[in-house]
Automatic annotation (TrEMBL):
<dbReference type="InterPro" id="IPR024474">
    <property type="entry name" value="Znf_dom_IS66"/>
</dbReference>
<protein>
    <submittedName>
        <fullName>IS66 family transposase</fullName>
    </submittedName>
</protein>
<dbReference type="Pfam" id="PF20042">
    <property type="entry name" value="DUF6444"/>
</dbReference>
<feature type="domain" description="Transposase IS66 central">
    <location>
        <begin position="169"/>
        <end position="444"/>
    </location>
</feature>
<dbReference type="Pfam" id="PF03050">
    <property type="entry name" value="DDE_Tnp_IS66"/>
</dbReference>
<feature type="compositionally biased region" description="Polar residues">
    <location>
        <begin position="55"/>
        <end position="65"/>
    </location>
</feature>
<feature type="domain" description="Transposase IS66 zinc-finger binding">
    <location>
        <begin position="110"/>
        <end position="153"/>
    </location>
</feature>
<dbReference type="Pfam" id="PF13005">
    <property type="entry name" value="zf-IS66"/>
</dbReference>
<dbReference type="InterPro" id="IPR004291">
    <property type="entry name" value="Transposase_IS66_central"/>
</dbReference>
<feature type="region of interest" description="Disordered">
    <location>
        <begin position="51"/>
        <end position="97"/>
    </location>
</feature>
<dbReference type="InterPro" id="IPR045618">
    <property type="entry name" value="DUF6444"/>
</dbReference>
<dbReference type="InterPro" id="IPR052344">
    <property type="entry name" value="Transposase-related"/>
</dbReference>
<feature type="domain" description="DUF6444">
    <location>
        <begin position="3"/>
        <end position="94"/>
    </location>
</feature>
Length: 481
């Protein structure tokens, strides 16, 4: 910067010029301060956002625990609320001796004493130990023969093969059921399933044959799964969820709709409205749908209930990472209300108690509103970005009835865990396989998994049920649940 001249030596015109120059400098500096202040504010917001993203985990957000690697996070469950081991009422599976063993091996005493040499006489006591093991398993081949004989009158008489025996050599329902059971329920890859069958039973089976068995099961079960979808659509309360699913190298979406006793899964290239329309299930639902609040579910005309497990995680983030005390009070209120509904054993809470919960809820929301004023419109297109605490507060405020639906309707669960659980095992299958190579294979998985998950909820023997499926006698679940 140039050295300023002595003011006493300047003329009036030079003094005026100097004043204008200084004014221009001050104006420029003010503008730079305003720009830098705005830049600092923006960067502080970015830093806060990034810190929030880094702080998110399966405990305080919707990030799945599988995405956290080896990082250990603190459970939301209170210590001592569910101690390790079998829970009260659990029947257990302890090995017990049986009255009629398949084989008995006697280990006789010596004839004489090894100390004195006298003969051992008298009544011996007996101690029993039993060993449970699997017998050697080998392939069993059943040969079917038909016969032909021509009568003296000229007519040829010919016996017939059973309807299920269609080829000179083929696998029976037990092998088919085993292949489907391992791949679709226990999530083994097709190649490993073929190896297991070869190693355990000496079954020389190819991956293509296993795939064909899966396709046959899907075709046989499709009508039953269609009935499951109809039954879910008619339920008083259902849960829905969706998750990304890679098929043939492209992103697809796995959709689920469930009740306490029914599970339905479907695959679609789209996540929202287009999938709902093609499936038709959710559009037919007239009861209450439990979901995570995603916008596409909001367009459905049914009654809504929001998953409070999501809210507890988000409230934990707002309390622990943003330092807002109202979030902890909301957690305590929701958890306490949930315990009340559980203790009511399916009976509705009293109107007075429901009103007390709602009053407390609205008082906490008032605290949240004071702590999180809405940012004014920025003048840019679209909605102004708001903070994480404000967005959560707004959802809890705008959809309070749906958040507290579990307090007013005892049929409605506190969370959407049933639907999330239905997604979990297919995601395990997806992670093991990387992706499904064909759309047909993924759709077959959805059909078979819908059937098996439903039967599991209703305590069917899955393996024996699959054997009956391949025999043409598909066991039907209870559709009224």
């Amino acid at each position: 910067m140039e050295r300023l001249p002595d003011l006493a030596d300047l003329t009036h015109a030079e003094k005026d010029a100097l004043i204008h120059l200084l004014w221009d400098w001050v104006t420029a500096l003010r503008q730079e301060v305003v720009r830098l202040t705005a830049e600092v504010t923006r960067l502080q917001g970015e830093v806060a956002h990034l810190r929030g993203q880094m702080a998110k985990n399966s405990r305080n957000s919707s990030i799945p625990s599988s995405a956290e690697g080896l990082k250990k996070t603190k459970s939301m469950r209170k210590q001592g609320s569910r101690p390790p081991g079998g829970q009260p009422g659990h029947s257990g599976s302890t090995l017990k001796q049986v009255a009629q063993p398949d084989h008995v091996v006697d280990h006789p005493l010596p004839e004489v004493c090894d100390v004195c040499g006298e003969s051992l006489t008298g009544q011996a006591t007996t101690e029993i130990r039993q060993v449970f093991d699997l017998p050697p398993v080998t392939m069993e081949v059943t040969e079917h023969r038909i016969h032909a004989l021509r009568c003296t009158c000229g007519k040829l008489h010919r016996s017939e093969f059973p309807p299920e025996v269609t080829a000179p050599v083929q696998y029976g329902p037990g092998v088919k059921a085993q292949a489907v059971y391992l791949t679709q329920h226990h999530m083994l890859p097709v190649a490993r399933t073929a190896n297991v069958l070869a190693d355990l039973y000496g079954v020389p089976i190819s991956t293509g044959t296993v795939q064909a068995m899966i396709g046959e099961a899907s075709e046989r079960l499709a009508p039953t799964v269609a009935r499951i979808a109809d039954a879910v659509a008619q339920a008083d309360v259902a849960g829905a969820d969706e998750s990304g699913f890679r098929v043939a190298g492209k992103l697809n979406w796995l959709h689920t709709a469930v009740t306490d006793t029914l599970t339905w899964l479907g695959l679609h290239a789209k996540r929202g409205k287009a999938a709902f329309e093609d499936f038709g299930l959710l559009y037919r639902l007239k009861g209450t749908l439990v979901h995570d609040g995603w916008a596409s579910y909001r367009e459905l005309t049914c009654t809504h209930a929001l998953c409070n497990a999501h809210h507890l995680r988000e409230l934990t983030f707002v309390h622990e990472e943003c330092g807002q005390a109202w979030a902890k009070r909301m957690i305590d209120l929701l958890v306490s209300a949930h315990h009340e509904t559980v203790a009511a054993h399916g009976q509705p809470l009293t109107a007075l108690r429901i009103q007390a919960i709602r009053t407390h809820y609205e008082a906490i929301l008032a605290e949240a509103a004071a702590a999180n004023p809405e940012k004014p419109a920025s003048g840019r297109r679209g909605r102004t970005a708001q903070s994480v605490p404000f967005n959560l507060y707004r959802r809890l405020r705008d959809h309070a009835d749906d958040v507290l639906r579990f307090t007013t309707d005892p049929r409605v669960p506190f969370s959407n865990n049933l639907a999330e659980q239905a997604i979990r095992m297919p995601k395990v299958k997806h992670k093991i396989a990387g992706c499904f190579r064909t759309t047909e294979g993924a759709q077959a998985f959805c059909i078979i998994r819908s059937y098996l998950a439903t039967l599991q909820k209703q305590h069917f023997d899955l393996f024996q049920s699959l054997i009956q499926v391949f025999k043409g006698n598909t066991p039907q679940p209870n559709f009224s649940g």
